[in-house]
UniProtKB/TrEMBL annotation, chain A:
GO cellular component term, pick one: plasma membrane
A GO term, aspect molecular function: transmembrane transporter activity
This protein's name: Cell division ATP-binding protein FtsE
Organism of this sequence: Marinomonas sp. (strain MWYL1)
Domain of life: Bacteria
Family indicated by similarity: Belongs to the ABC transporter superfamily.
Listed GO biological process terms: cell division
Oligomeric form and interacting partners: Homodimer. Forms a membrane-associated complex with FtsX.
Gene designation per UniProt: ftsE
From TrEMBL, chain B:
Protein family according to the UniProt entry: Belongs to the ABC-4 integral membrane protein family. FtsX subfamily.
Keyword Cell division on entry: yes
NCBIfam families: FtsX_Gneg (TIGR00439)
Subcellular location per the Swiss-Prot or TrEMBL entry: Cell inner membrane
Every ABC3 transporter permease C-terminal domain range: 210-327
Subunit description: Forms a membrane-associated complex with FtsE.
Lineage of the organism: Bacteria, Pseudomonadati, Pseudomonadota, Gammaproteobacteria, Oceanospirillales
Gene3D superfamilies in the cross-refs: 3.30.70.3040
InterPro entries xref list: ABC3_permease_C (IPR003838), FtsX (IPR004513), FtsX_ECD (IPR040690), FtsX_proteobact-type (IPR047590)
Pfam families attached to this UniProt entry: FtsX, FtsX_ECD
Protein name per UniProt: Cell division protein FtsX
GO cellular component: cell division site; plasma membrane
Topology of the protein relative to the lipid bilayer: Multi-pass membrane protein
Sequence ranges assigned to domain FtsX extracellular in this UniProt record: 92-185
């Protein structure tokens, strides 16, 4: 999936200007990191892509289509093409790992055999095939995060968005998670990862977009 | 935890095979649609079972609320079936104008007896009327004191139909037709007590209707409140579903089914309540009515009425859930 931001601005109803004049272009199959201090607007930028929030100025083009032209009814279909790992939408604790990962497929009405096959494929990818019957509380933090990633990719999304996916994981686990994203990118998925872990981002050797006070201050390689 | 037989090889293959086959938009397919509904139907039922206490309470409150109008309906039905059989010989008394000639009155009498819905007409002349009055004592003095006979000619018309609750209105129509004859000063249908009974029954009917409406509203509120709590308790799930691309209809569906189950189960227990109650009162009620009328059998909910009750209650359940879900899902938005 190809993403283009053209002088995008977002002003919250509170008056807070989270983004202003943000422009960048993410090619199909590209992988990039989004960094910046806390409150720089990273999460806001990802919410705009998911149509959780709407921009107050500028244009966002997804595969050449202006998101403003999508009707309310089209939003779910847009979201099904995007896999997300968001901090505040974690796993459902009263559902098994299998069910959690299956959710995007259930929602789009896939048939049960397909669901089982795809869920196991996704769990296999993140190395948790043997944990499908567990409940999230029985898993470690790193494992939970990986279940979240499996859920994000189970639908074979064209774009993968991850907001601080390594939040409170130790460096070794963080590196593992980042490697996972890299693997998905290798099979053609466009990947954008927000992180304030500059050291980790630098090691990954990918394009880095840096936000400061809602403005894109750096769009370059390797941090 | 048991691990499924090793499927790694197979799943890797399947990932590769469909690697670049991204679906851009899901298309509508009937089989998919039915499968989703079926799954939701069973899942929503399992969810009720998951919260047994709250569900049982809600179902019972609905059952009680519905069995009240249902029971009154059965009661009314029985009263009606009893009173429908109460009949009496009907008589319409025509008081003709006092200045009418005997010949004119006789002509009218003949004309009326030829009418299809009239069995017979009895002619009571002024003299006969006077004799009748004199016989029935008390008036004797007064009558003889009068200079001339003040009584009009009277025709006693016996309609073919006997009068009961069901024929009352057609007899009233006949009375009106007779009253409109130019010779007739006043026509009286002798059916006052039946008229009263009919009034009481129609009052009873309206009472049951009004009560039903009130209780249906109550059931809507009960279902709505339970569904609201269910939505609220599944807030996180609703948010995650929205995030992964669930349509509003998809999110709404399990709650509507929940309302459906509440309605159907409530209706089922209400019907059961009514059946048990009418069985319980049937013996004494039949003995009582038998004193006046032999062969009385207490009527209860029949199959059609049970199905109707279930349908109505299912509909109320879904409708109540629909209102609650629409109001509360809208307040749960991703941010
Ligand atoms: N829903 C909201 N309403 C008002 N202000 C918000 C909202 N969400 C974020 N903000 C503000 O917008 C700015 C950017 O926030 P955010 O995108 O979360 O930054 P980051 O993810 O980089 O930490 C912050 O100043 C934050 O306080
Ligand atoms: Mg953030």
């Amino acid at each position: 999936m190809e993403i283009e931001f053209q002088r995008v601005g977002k002003k919250y109803e509170s008056g807070q200007e989270a983004l202003s004049q943000v422009s960048f272009h993410l090619q199909q199959g590209e992988m990039a990191f989004l960094t910046g201090h806390s409150g720089a607007g990273k999460s806001t930028l990802m919410k705009l892509m998911m149509m959780i929030e709407r921009q107050t100025s500028g244009q966002i083009l997804v595969d050449g289509v202006d998101l403003r032209t999508l009707s309310r009814r089209a939003i779910p279909h847009h979201r099904r093409r995007v896999g997300v790992v968001f901090q505040n939408h974690q796993l459902l604790l009263d559902r098994s790992v299998f069910h959690n990962v299956a959710l995007p497929l259930l929602v789009s009405g896939a048939d049960p055999q397909q669901i089982a096959k795809r869920v196991r494929a996704a769990l296999d990818k993140v190395g948790l095939l043997d944990k499908e019957k567990y409940y999230p509380m029985a898993l470690s933090g790193g494992e939970q995060q990986r279940v979240g990633i499996a859920r994000a990719v189970v639908n074979k999304p064209q774009l993968l968005l991850a907001d601080e996916p390594t939040g409170n994981l130790d460096p070794k686990l963080s590196a593992e998670i980042m490697n996972l994203f890299q693997e998905f990118n290798r099979v053609g998925v466009t990947v954008l990862v927000a992180s304030h872990d500059l050291a980790l981002v630098a090691r990954m050797r990918h394009r880095v977009l840096t936000l400061n006070q809602g403005r894109m201050v750096n769009d370059g390689g390797f941090g | 935890m048991a691990q499924k037989p090793n499927q790694r090889g197979a799943t890797r293959e399947s990932i590769k095979a469909t690697k670049h086959n991204w679906p851009t938009r899901t298309s509508f397919s009937p089989s998919k649609y039915f499968r989703q509904h079926q799954t939701t139907l069973t899942e929503s039922f399992m969810r009720l079972v998951h919260y047994p206490l709250a569900s049982v309470m809600t179902v019972m409150v609905i059952a009680i609320a519905l069995s009240l109008p249902g029971g009154l309906y059965v009661l009314l039905k029985n009263v009606q079936s009893v009173t429908d059989q109460w009949e009496q010989q009907s008589v319409i008394t025509l008081y003709l104008f006092p200045n009418l000639e005997d010949t004119q009155a006789l002509a009218l009498s003949h004309r009326l007896s030829a009418q299809a819905d009239i069995a017979s007409v009895e002619y009571i002349s002024k003299e006969e009327g006077l004799r009748y009055f004199e016989r029935s004592s008390g008036y004797e003095q007064i009558m003889s004191a009068l200079p001339e006979n003040p009584l009009p000619i009277v025709l006693r018309v016996i309609p073919r139909q006997t009068v009961d609750i069901t024929t009352l209105s057609s007899l009233q129509a006949l009375r009106n037709q007779l009253a409109a004859q130019k010779e007739v000063e006043y026509a009286e249908l002798d059916a006052q007590w039946l008229q009263r009974l009919a009034n009481i029954l129609s009052f009873g009917q309206r009472f049951v209707y009004a009560l039903s409406v009130l209780l249906v509203v109550a059931v809507l509120l009960i279902v709505g409140n339970t569904i609201r709590m269910a939505v609220e308790s599944r807030r996180d799930e609703v948010l995650v579903m929205k995030l992964v691309g669930a349509t509003d209809a998809y999110i709404r569906r399990p709650f509507l089914y929940m309302g459906f189950w509440f309605g159907v189960l409530g209706g089922f227990f209400a019907s059961l309540c009514i059946l048990v109650l009418s069985w319980w009162v049937s013996a004494p009620a039949e003995r009582l009515i038998d004193l006046y009328q032999s062969g009385f059998q207490l009527q209860t909910f029949n199959a059609d009425e049970i199905i109707l009750c279930l349908t109505i209650s299912a509909f109320i359940g879904v409708f109540g859930a629909w209102i609650a879900v629409n109001r509360h899902i809208a307040t749960i938005e991703l941010q």
